[in-house]
Structures are given as structure tokens and as C-alpha cells.
Design brief:
Layout lengths: L14 H6 L1 E5 L7 E4 L23 E6 L8 E2 L4 E3 L5 E4 L8 E6 L19 H5 L5 E3 H12 L11 H18 L4 E7 L5 E3 L6 E8 L5 E6 L33 H7 L7 H9 L30 E5 L4 E4 L7 E7 L10 E3 L3 H14 L6 H23 L3 H8 L9
Parallel strand pairs: 12-13
Antiparallel strand pairs: 1-7, 2-6, 3-4, 3-7, 5-6, 8-16, 9-15, 10-14, 11-12, 11-15, 13-14
């Protein structure tokens, strides 16, 4: 098993570790409690070493041993072991065979090449999650770098609490995630009969909604204000006054009539349009493709010029409701989060790292009393300039893309 030598640069993993997610060792001639220190970019997670324990499914790696290192001779290590607090050191409590070959395999979609049975293979996505990670810097590293480079004697910030830096770094992550970083997420959802989908747990704002046709092509769906999702459905007496229960709280009716009418609405066959189309000689359902929509009678309303359906986002209840012509459709929701919801989100592109330092510097100095205003304004301008540079870098506009788009500049546009 060839081992590629490590680089002396910033990349700490060799090609075998990055692409295959495996690292090899040789056991000692004898002895228990042998330790093997890995240097993956990913920390090792050990729920339990015993496959019969439910926590075994939490493991993001497997250990294999072989007396010869030849393909087909590997077997999974299912004897007691532990992982050190550093997330990198594996301690085998029992002694492997003398001078045995030992391999640590991170979970991978293919299962790796060391397991002889399906149960022994290391199935998972730990390796794939690490692909492309070099383009990012972890927020914790940004915080440490800032404390080293920007804080200290004879520096602009002589002293600062680490907690203050952490707070401003997280705030920067949130602000950058909204309009600077490539933080757009997507979720594929199947439309249920209720025509309602729940917002993702880390949802902050939507970017785009589409349905996917049989060819895998996405078609945009647009929001609408044709209806509304009432937050309260109050029960009223004959005078229209809300009725209260024994605790003095307004009594809620269920379900909402507005919601019922919207859910049962067919945009293509609305009653106010039906008589008009019949008067023109068309019968129900036989008008041309795309006809029979609001705006046909008195002129096009561009907010309704859409054949793909409509949706409304109910922020109060955290749900999205759709028009019923999207029943059983495959929906893709593209949305943004704040970059702090999950640990794997807490990373920043290296192209925006300098903007992060500028943001933290300005935020710390501006929040202190007695700071010269010209210093605060200088840091503010520096932050704006570096943030603008980060946006330009991350926009990823290439000349070849612009050339391709401009090739249609002579095309006639018919109105």
C-alpha cells in the first residue's frame, strides 16, 4: 500500500486520505493499548466499537487489520477501542497480530475497499463531506488568527476578550451569509395531498422555488398575494364579537375557511372567468394551453403571468402552501441560512477571510467608548472596501460566460 508523502504547505492530507478517506499504519511486534494517530481533516467520531450497540451507527470510520496487507485479507476490528480527546488518536485496547497492517477508513459512499462483506464496508458520506474543504477557513481558525494578528501591544486593539471576538465573528457570519457568501441551500420535497410543506429547520429566507418535470428540468414557481393564511380564526357571536373561553382567551375556529377555499381552488377554472370563455365559444377545459388565467379578460397582470403554479409562505406557522395544480409535484426550495445552524456551516470562503477580519476590527473598536472617530470611520471604510472585494471575488463571473451571453446580442426580440 503506497503512502504519498505529506506536503509542507497548508494541505495536511495526502491524496489517499483526501480521495479514499483511508490512512495506513503498522502495528508493533507486541503489546496492548497501541495508539495510532491519524491526521485527517475530519475528526474521528466513535459512538461504540461493538456493532451490536445502537451507538455503533454514529461512527464515522472503521478500523481494519491484515497480516499481509493483501486485498481480501482485511478484517474489521470489532474489539474494544477508543478515540482520544483530540479526535485523531485511536487506541486499540487489545493487541493486534504482530506487525499487522492497520487501516483507518472514513465512511464513504462506496464503502471503501477493505471490507469483505457488506456489513464490514464503511458506508457513509464523511469522505464526500470533506471534498472541496480547502476553499474554506473554519470560523474558529479566523478567531484564533484575529487574536494573534490584530490584538496585542502596539496594535490597534491592545486587548479584547475572546468572547467578544467570537460574538462579532458570528455576527459577521450571519451578515455575510445573507448577501455575500455562497450559502444558498436547496431541499428536494414531494408535494403531499395537503399542498403544504414545512420550512427547513435552518431557513432564514427563500431564494427561489421550482418544480421539477419528468426530464429533470426545473420550472420557476412564483409567490402570490391572491390569498392569505390567517393566523387566527376567531369564533364570533351574532354581533360579530369574538367569543372567549373560561380563561378569557379568544376561542379559535378550525379549520380556516380561507385556507379551505385556497386549497380547493383551481386557478385554471375560476368561476369569474368561466362564463367569459363560454361566451367566446369555448367549453370548460378546452381552451388553448396557458389560457383561462386571471388577466385574460381585461389585460395581462404580470404578477399572475405564470403557468407553473403559485405558493405562499406562512412565516407565523413556518409553512409553505401551494396552489392545487402542483399536487404530487417534485418541489425544489432554494433558501439561505445564517451560517450558524450547523457546525459544518461555520466556515468562511478564503476569498472573504480578509473581509471578516475587517468586520471584527470595526465592530470591536466602534463599540468601545473613547475611541477617536477618525479611527472608527477608517475601519468602517476599510470594512466596506474589503466586503465589496469579497462580493466581486465570490460572484464568480468569468469572461467566457459573458462572451457566451453576448453572442445573442444581435438577436431580434419580438414584443
Amino acid at each position: 500500500m503506497a503512502i504519498q508523502p505529506k506536503s509542507n504547505g497548508l494541505i495536511t492530507e495526502n491524496a489517499q486520505q483526501y480521495y479514499q478517506g483511508s490512512q495506513g499504519f503498522r502495528a508493533a511486534a507486541s503489546g496492548v493499548n497501541q495508539k495510532f494517530v491519524t491526521d485527517f481533516n475530519t475528526e474521528l467520531i466513535l459512538g461504540d466499537w461493538n456493532p451490536a450497540n445502537p451507538n455503533y451507527g454514529l461512527n464515522n470510520f472503521k478500523v481494519y487489520t491484515s497480516p499481509s496487507g493483501i486485498s481480501g485479507s482485511w478484517s474489521e476490528w470489532i474489539t474494544s477501542m477508543s478515540v482520544g480527546s483530540d479526535g485523531r488518536t485511536i487506541n486499540l485496547d487489545a493487541a493486534p497480530s504482530a506487525n499487522a497492517y492497520v487501516v483507518v477508513q472514513l465512511t464513504i459512499l462506496t464503502g471503501g475497499k477493505y471490507g469483505n462483506t457488506e456489513a464490514e464496508k464503511a458506508y457513509g458520506e464523511t469522505v464526500e463531506d470533506n471534498y472541496g474543504s480547502y476553499q474554506y477557513t473554519k470560523v474558529n481558525d479566523v478567531i484564533n488568527n484575529f487574536l494573534v494578528a490584530y490584538v496585542g501591544q502596539n496594535k490597534l486593539i491592545p486587548n479584547v476578550n475572546r468572547t467578544d471576538v467570537i460574538f462579532h465573528a458570528k455576527r459577521a457570519m450571519q451578515e455575510f451569509s445573507y448577501d455575500t457568501l455562497k450559502s444558498i441551500k436547496s431541499a428536494e420535497l414531494t408535494m403531499p395531498a395537503s399542498l403544504t410543506l414545512v420550512l427547513p429547520q435552518d431557513f432564514v429566507n427563500y431564494v427561489k422555488m421550482s418544480y421539477i418535470d419528468q426530464l429533470g428540468v426545473k420550472h420557476p414557481i412564483y409567490p402570490t398575494d391572491l390569498s392569505i393564511r390567517p393566523q387566527q380564526t376567531l369564533i364570533q357571536d351574532n354581533d360579530g364579537i369574538p367569543v372567549q373561553d373560561n380563561q378569557g382567551t379568544n376561542t379559535q375556529g378550525n379549520p380556516s375557511k380561507t385556507n379551505e377555499r385556497w386549497d380547493n381552488n383551481q386557478i385554471k377554472s375560476r368561476e369569474e372567468l368561466y362564463d367569459y370563455w363560454v361566451g367566446l365559444g369555448y367549453q370548460n377545459g378546452d381552451w388553448p394551453q396557458g389560457w383561462g388565467y386571471p388577466g385574460q379578460q381585461y389585460g395581462l397582470d404580470t404578477t399572475l403571468a405564470n403557468i407553473n403554479g403559485y405558493y405562499m409562505i406562512d412565516q407565523a406557522f413556518g409553512k409553505i402552501s401551494f396552489s392545487n395544480d402542483l399536487t404530487e409535484s417534485l418541489i425544489v426550495l432554494e433558501y439561505i441560512s445564517d451560517g450558524l445552524a450547523y457546525e459544518e456551516d461555520m466556515k468562511i470562503p478564503k476569498m472573504a477571510e480578509e473581509a471578516m477580519y475587517a468586520h471584527i476590527s470595526h465592530a470591536i473598536v466602534a463599540s468601545r467608548i473613547g475611541q477617536p472617530e477618525y479611527i472608527v470611520q477608517r475601519l468602517k471604510r476599510e470594512r466596506s472596501a474589503k466586503l465589496r472585494n469579497a462580493k466581486l471575488r465570490l460572484s464568480n463571473i468569468k469572461p467566457i460566460d459573458i462572451i457566451q451571453a453576448f453572442r445573442g446580442k444581435s438577436k431580434w426580440i419580438k414584443h
